[in-house]
Amino acid sequence: MSEQTEATDIKKKILSTGIRVGTPVKTKFMTPFITKASPEGLYMLDIDITLEKIKTAAKFINRLGTDKLIVCSARQYANTPIEKFCEMLGSKKLLGRFMPGTLTNPSLPYYIEPKVVLISDPQVDVQAITEATNAGIPVIGISNTDNITSKLDVIIPANNRGRKALATVYWLLVRQILIERGELKEDEPMKYEIDDFETKITEEEIE
């Protein structure tokens, strides 16, 4: 299978996950990644740019090492995607509230020195971004149409609110990192599917 055919297949597979569906708001930072507004008034992200940025992020992470990466998010729907990502790549996860001083205060017992930080939402994960910036650590961020991205080194434009969309971004990123490493062929299925990366809804949430 050619690389182009594989890219088309991947695109078909992910379009139904809501990965490109943004919000009714757009910032000047995210305007270059937006194609149009939907009839419902939601800005839509360019899926081709998203896939290219995932490749960029994968190269960047591989260069620094997945064991030197921390993945953090205070967004509940990012929990399972991040857990699966870290399980497959040996990265460190920081879920829930980001403790002040984690990246900047060596006297704290939970202080760490990663080479790169991956966050799921610049708005929710602002503490992690601020500390990484102060410590000179590059930040990769999944960003929606309404996000401010001035402190991010690599922007992955995608829906960072939806369960399926977040699962898809992390699934694509793991897949691309493994392809870059030569551990997975372009046309080879991965051990896990997108559904395995998805945070499941509890019965209370359904009610």
From TrEMBL:
Which SUPFAM superfamilies does this entry report, sorted A to Z?
Answer: Ribosomal protein S2
Gene3D superfamilies from the xrefs?
Glucose-6-phosphate isomerase like protein, domain 1
> How is this protein annotated for GO cellular component?
small ribosomal subunit
Q: Does the keyword Repressor apply?
A: no
Q: Which InterPro entries match?
A: Ribosomal_uS2 (IPR001865), Ribosomal_uS2_arc (IPR023454), Ribosomal_uS2_CS (IPR018130), Ribosomal_uS2_euk/arc (IPR005707), Ribosomal_uS2_flav_dom_sf (IPR023591)
Keyword annotations of the record: Ribonucleoprotein, Ribosomal protein
GO biological process annotations for this chain's record? translation
Please tell me whether the keyword Ribonucleoprotein is annotated for this protein.
Answer: yes
Report the domain of life of the source organism: Archaea
Question: What CDD domains does this protein's entry cite?
Answer: RPS2
GO MF terms, alphabetically ordered: structural constituent of ribosome
PROSITE patterns for the chain: RIBOSOMAL_S2_2
User: Which family, according to UniProt?
Assistant: Belongs to the universal ribosomal protein uS2 family.
Q: What is this protein called?
A: Small ribosomal subunit protein uS2
